[in-house]
Design a protein that fits this description.
Elements: H1 2-8, H2 14-25, H3 28-33, E1 40-52, E2 55-68, E3 79-88, H4 94-99, E4 106-111, E5 114-118, E6 132-134, H5 156-165, E7 166-169, E8 172-178, H6 179-185, H7 187-193, E9 201-208, E10 214-222, H8 229-232, E11 236-249, E12 260-261
Parallel strand pairs: 6-12
Antiparallel strand pairs: 1-2, 1-11, 2-3, 3-4, 4-5, 5-6, 7-8, 8-9, 9-10, 10-11
Signal peptide: 1-23
Keywords: Signal
Protein name: Lipoprotein LprG
Length: 262
């Protein structure tokens, strides 16, 4: 939450096995770049969990689409548009009491340099008759995006960082990467995280499909990036993302003007 508050200030078998092995030995970044075609994209689903000594608690789910297009100055890079819907699952306890007033069911549409969001508790009610709030910058996950997956393996720049820092086993790459490296390489990461990280790291496990494209990404980072350390100790946030429907036609449009405030 500390990062969120700071950033929002400026945002208002052999034969069978042969196929996966061949795919894994190919260049995943090159394979992804071949799919970066304007008007096409990929479907994504995220599950965010809080992990402590008692186990894993799912508190956020997100679904949506990412659309490729020509990058624009101040935008989120080659992923030029996105339509993401989040569902918050409340729980009892001091950890969740902190975020109950921040998170809720939310939808965020991003096109070019701007994002439009509705349902975010943090922004309060819109003017009468207005469903959406227009943000002054791209914030593709909205408020809930700060607790969702902000490492976008569907972006070539991010995928290159993950491949570089990961140790490969078959079609899976596992590793640890500095958040500063992701910030430097990824326009999407900069837009999603809002504030430049200092020295944080995250662990990840990236699995490619038999087509050589990202299929699943699991990231983990310390919960203290969102809560005060005395409350969460060494607890972690884990986010699992799945990518499906590569190459499908995607068309994300902004909300009607008469429904937008700001």
């Amino acid at each position: 939450m500390q990062r969120l508050i700071a950033g929002l200030a400026g945002a208002v078998v052999l034969t069978v096995a042969a196929v996966p092995a061949a795919a894994a030995s190919a260049d995943p970044v090159k394979a992804l770049k071949s799919r970066v075609i304007a008007g096409q994209g990929v479907k994504v689903t995220d599950v965010t969990s809080y992990v402590d000594m008692e186990g894993k608690t799912v508190f956020l789910r997100r679904t949506g689409v990412l659309q490729y297009g020509k990058p624009v100055k101040g935008g989120a890079g080659t992923v030029a548009a996105a339509d993401l819907r989040s569902v918050y699952i409340p729980h009892e306890g001091p950890v969740f009491d902190v975020i109950d007033n921040l998170l809720g069911d939310e939808r965020t549409i991003t096109v070019g340099r701007y994002s439009y969001t509705k349902g975010a508790k943090l922004y309060g009610a819109t003017r009468k008759g207005k469903s959406w709030i227009k943000l002054k910058r791209p914030m593709p996950g909205g408020v809930s995006g700060m607790y969702s997956q902000y490492v976008n393996a569907a972006e070539p720049a991010t995928l290159q960082v993950l491949i570089k820092h990961g140790e490969r086993s078959g079609r899976t790459y596992k590793g640890t990467v500095g958040e500063a490296a992701l910030w430097k390489a990824s326009p999407w990461y900069r837009a999603a995280t809002l504030v430049k990280p200092k020295d944080g790291t995250l662990q990840y496990e990236l699995t490619l499909g038999t087509n050589g494209l990202p299929q699943r990404l699991i990231t983990s980072h310390p919960a203290k990036e969102h809560w005060v350390e005395s409350l969460v100790n060494d607890d972690m946030i884990t986010i699992e993302t799945r990518y499906t429907g590569w190459g499908g036609k995607v068309r994300v449009t902004v909300p009607p003007k008469n429904q937008v405030a700001g």
